[in-house]
Fold this sequence. Notes:
Two copies of one chain form a homodimer. Helix content of chain A is 71%, strand content 0%.
Amino acid sequence: MNRGRRPGQVSSRDAVLRAAREQFSRKGYDAATVRAIAAEAGVDPSMINHHFGTKEQLFMAALESPVDPKDHISAVLGGPREGAGERLVTRILAVWDSPAGAAGVAVLRTAMQHEWSAALVREFILNRAIKPLLAGLGVPAEEASWRGNLVASQLSGLILTRYLIKLEPIASAPHAVVVQALGPTIQRYLTGAVGADHLGG
Amino acid sequence: MNRGRRPGQVSSRDAVLRAAREQFSRKGYDAATVRAIAAEAGVDPSMINHHFGTKEQLFMAALESPVDPKDHISAVLGGPREGAGERLVTRILAVWDSPAGAAGVAVLRTAMQHEWSAALVREFILNRAIKPLLAGLGVPAEEASWRGNLVASQLSGLILTRYLIKLEPIASAPHAVVVQALGPTIQRYLTGAVGADHLGG
DNA sequence: CACTTAATTCAACGCTTGTTGAATTAGTTG
DNA sequence: CAACTAATTCAACAAGCGTTGAATTAAGTG
């Protein structure tokens, strides 16, 4: 292996991936052009097709993220039940402020324009993140759907205003301040009273 | 006036505007092509330039909305202070479920990709909507900024999940159910305890 | 040194985009 | 009717897009 490459030299593949993540997260799928990604990576546009096939495959490759929701979910579940809201907000901020958050921003930006990306977001939020979390909290299945949507609405709004629209001062607020403000909201959505007569619909 | 047009026949200008609103709100500024708008309006693409100049000017014309935030703000302010949260959510749902909401969806979709649209959203949310509302509630100026951001985070998240991502069941939930769930959250952000040590920063 | 294979370069393709300008049609005005 | 003006049609433009394939370079292998 490692054929045709000087040892100790990083392949241009990584440079392309880095540039792709940067461009996709800043502009979304459509506005981020293959040519611009190639330029930022200091590479010929055709290299992208050579390494990744099509633009869509590059997008998927750029989304490959080391973030496993399971780790964070178990972390949120570990601790007193009435502190789950604050712990969830804390985790969300940590992930989205890290480099791994760029992938999320890219998908979310693209979800505004392409149904297939919106479907990706829905699937992830519901089945991968919120459903197992609520199950771990012992929330009845017939309540989980509605409570999960409420949690998603507040957290996606946080992400939208803080990372996409960059509304100040929430975009620059320290984690602790955001946690203090949103924690009780999330806690109520998870385990409090949220219109019990509708649950199960 | 009315030169060169058969009386009783609506000009193609209105048809273009209608199609533009539809396309812009469904796809955002970039993905909505001039040609697609023209096709939906049953009109030659060059008619758009003839009537509106450029695509950007058409976008601006399509955003001309009969919605005046002032009316809704005074409606929210009219009534007991502790019911302001529920009244605000009620108003938001009414506006965004109406045809006028399409313009908002268009701007918000575009704000994900273009800084100039994001700036438009920031300006509107902060100065036109939330700032006067909080002033009317008698909230001190040094708290208004932070409280306003919190309100924006929850309401923009509602709009995102309900109208853009179309997360179920929140996308189809009756107004009353959403009001019951989000009302207390907004109320706390407006007048409750939200991290008083940070306010004024 | 050949041989092989991957990496890279370069030019070009077909397509869609927003926009333009000339030619034509239609309806009102003097 | 003649004159004028707005509305409409049509073809084409330049620019940018993703993608392709052939030619070239470079590096490890027998």
